[in-house]
């Protein structure tokens, strides 16, 4: 996957996760960071569970969004404490 495509998927995944959990995005850089870290978390989580989101762009986006949602959920729990 090219770097540009990786960054684009990360930004979109971060934006979607921000809309679903927080009700708004985090700006371009924030969405990018949340999406990229979420993609790493989602990839590890899916491989640990033995689940595959499918290949290609849609599978990568689904994995990144789920990972970003997990990341934002954990950050939300930590911020409340």
From TrEMBL:
Question: Subcellular location, in the record's words?
Answer: Cell membrane
Q: Does the keyword Nucleus apply?
A: no
Which Gene Ontology cellular component terms are annotated? plasma membrane
What family does this belong to?
A: Belongs to the UPF0410 family.
Q: Does the keyword Transmembrane helix apply?
A: yes
Q: What is the lineage of its organism?
A: Bacteria, Pseudomonadati, Pseudomonadota, Gammaproteobacteria, Pseudomonadales
Q: What's its membrane topology?
A: Multi-pass membrane protein
Sorted alphabetically, the keyword list is: Cell membrane, Membrane, Transmembrane, Transmembrane helix
Question: Which InterPro entries does the record match to this protein?
Answer: Transgly_assoc
Q: So where does this one cross the membrane?
A: 28-49, 56-78
Query: In its UniProt entry, what is this protein called?
Result: GlsB/YeaQ/YmgE family stress response membrane protein
Give the domain of life: Bacteria
């Amino acid at each position: 996957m090219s770097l540009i495509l990786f960054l684009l998927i990360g930004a979109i995944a971060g934006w979607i996760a921000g809309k679903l959990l927080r009700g708004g995005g985090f700006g371009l850089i924030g969405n990018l960071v949340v999406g990229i870290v979420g993609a790493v978390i989602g990839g590890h989580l899916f491989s640990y569970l033995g689940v595959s989101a499918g290949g290609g762009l849609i599978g990568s986006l689904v994995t990144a969004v789920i990972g970003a949602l997990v990341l934002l959920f954990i950050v939300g729990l930590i911020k409340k404490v």
